Amino acid sequence: MTKPTAASLKAVVLSHPPSKDEVIDFEIKLLIEAIQFQYGYDFSHYAQASLTRRIESCLKKSELSNISELIPKIIYKVEYFDLFLREMSVTVTEMFRDPLVFKALRDKVFTQLKTYSRVNIWHAGCATGEEAYSLAIMLKEEGLLPRCQIYATDFNNHSLAIAEQGIYKAEKIPLFTQNYLLSGGKASFADYYQAKHSHAIMHDDLKQHITFAHHNLIKDQCFAQMHLIVCRNVLIYFDRDLQNSVLGLFHHSLLHRGYLLLGDKETLEFSNQNDSFTAISQEQRIYQKVTYD
Ligand SMILES: C[S@@+](CC[C@H](N)C(=O)[O-])C[C@H]1O[C@@H](n2cnc3c(N)ncnc32)[C@H](O)[C@@H]1O
Predict the structure, then answer these.
(1) Which atom of ligand 1 is nearest to the CA of 238?
(2) Do the beta carbons of residue 226 and residue 253 sit within 8 Å?
(3) Order of strands across the sheet with 199-202?
(4) Which of 254, 217, 212 is nearest to 119 (CA)?
(5) What does the alpha-carbon distance between residue 10 and residue 134 come to, in Å, rounded to a whole number?
(6) H/E run at residue 166
(7) What is the pLDDT of residues 95-143, one digit of tens each?
(8) What is the structure's pLDDT at 2?
(9) Alpha carbon nearest to ligand 1 atom 9, residue
(10) Which of 287, 275, 178, 278 is nearest to 228 (CA)?
(11) Cβ of 157 less than 6 Å from ligand 1
């Protein structure tokens, strides 16, 4: 066998130059591995298109020109990982978002929850807390709040800190009020917060029934004995394998006949859990567990 010369090696390299996209895919894989190695967060099952967009935005904000420059920064400087985590965590949310979903929850699910002496609710991917407070308000109006505990979780600690404070900009109140009324609100939205300067501070009696906690859907355990799980607009960021694994976690966490509420672009159809649930409202993405563990 003849030994390869520098010239023949160069010819081989040049005859198979990777495309720009292949280089980026390779860099993304390295970045994901570095993050998992250093911080234990596994982003390998996030939907590729949104992952790529988020990384691009991270590069822009860090004023770096390519992913290879970002990798050592993420490994050695936690603030770069923090920035990455915030980018990966899309925190868009609002009170009573999709009001008709909340109306259906009130009419179809809360009426059933009234038969239990204690009600456990897991709100996964709560972002800055607006949905959790919306649930608490509705539960209060249905006379259920005193026997309810809402466990509102997210993997973004920055969002959780805002959620725990329950202080929102006054400029958002008109939208929240409109959503509240469309969702079948029975009182005045102003009954649930104290206005101070340019902010609205949610009342303590709502907060007392919400426990905000860090939880990573990819690697953390299930919450046992839940009557209702609300997880909206989170699964859309995951690939099919991760969606199936998280839905399995939810199935495991729910009591028999427990309810699951997903976001409007998320469905149990085509998932591994399709046969374990029945649709209470396919349109509003409300499902009920029909199997035992
Ligand atoms: C678009 S927000 C949804 C907020 C709210 N559920 C809603 O629909 O208005 C998505 C949330 O999912 C959270 N998230 C994404 N991946 C997660 C994970 N692996 N574990 C826990 N939360 C996650 C993000 O931090 C973000 O707060």
Answers:
(1) 16
(2) yes
(3) 167-169, 199-202, 193-196
(4) 254
(5) 63
(6) none
(7) 999 999 999 999 999 999 999 999 999 999 999 999 999 999 999 999 9
(8) 66
(9) 93
(10) 287
(11) no
Q: Is 167 in the pocket of ligand 1 (CB under 6 A)?
A: no
Pocket residue to mutate for ligand 1, from 158, 231, 234, most atoms within 8 A of Cβ: 234
pLDDT beyond 80 at 8: no
Tens of pLDDT, residues 15-38: 778 898 899 999 999 999 999 999
Pair 122, 249: CB distance under 8 Å: no
pTM metric for this prediction: 0.92
Between helix 67-76 and helix 78-88 the angle, nearest 10°, is 120
User: What amino acid is encoded at 194 in this protein?
Assistant: Q
Strand order of the β-sheet with 226-231 is: 210-214, 148-154, 119-124, 226-231, 254-262, 286-289, 277-281
Number of helices (H) and strands (E), helices first, in the chain? 12, 10
Q: Across the chain, where does the E strand assignment appear?
A: 119-124, 148-154, 167-169, 193-196, 199-202, 210-214, 226-231, 254-262, 277-281, 286-289
4: enclosing H helix or E strand: none
Separation of first and last alpha carbons in the chain: 62
Residue 136: closest CA among 126, 147, 145, 124: 145
Q: Is the C-beta atom of 125 inside 6 A of ligand 1?
A: yes
